[in-house]
Write the structure tokens for this entry.
Amino acid sequence: MPDSLNLINVSRHFGNTKAVDNVSLDIPPGQFVGVIGRSGAGKSTMLRLINRLIDPTEGEIRYGDRVVTQLKGKALRDWRRDCAMIFQQFNLVDRLDVLTNVLIGRLAERGFVSSMLMRFTDEERTMAIQALDRLDLVPQTLQRAGTLSGGQQQRVAIAKALVQQPRIMLADEPIASLDPANATLVMDGLRAINREDGITVLVNLHTLDTARAYCDRIVAMRDGRVMFDGSPCQLTNDVVRDIYGTEGLQEFNEAATSTQKVAVMA
């Protein structure tokens, strides 16, 4: 049975700045969690702590019997395979074709020599093509990644994460730079993976409408702390105003309006 992800009094300090401040969360398997908040609220830092790209100053992260914050060496590499990370910047190799970029997600399973030589089995190639098919990208399989649109590149990044066969997917502002049509394709892809594969998804988002539309649960952060943790229907505009103030609600609404304008221009 899949395990729960637990953050227990987790903090991360950068000098005198508390980027994440005493955060505790219990995330059951298969949940789709949206994390919202202004820039600098601690959203990205929290995802990087979970993936162990950075270490906490205090606190503990657990996944079932694994104490994630104590993992080293191969155990840490295995965790990063099981806890896939999707970035706003796509993290693809522009000069390589789409299929090879997706197959790079399999390197955690391979030895050093095979990794250096980029050797992949027929089974792995089939796995990669199936992942691309799920994200409607088979026609782009042999196209150079650098020639794709931003939305297509982000879906390639999701396919790359998918072939890791993770138990958790972390997505750090995956639609921040996309127009609404491409943002919808990316979010639809993440939701399908969550529902069909039972993979836990944590995604940082800028707009309330997107969080309400896709997420089972919404966590709102401010100044490194969790200020709200509940269902989308509980996150009313009045609650947002209580948490962030009037200008905080205005900021979220302006972000949504700005995204809509991009759609009209496109």
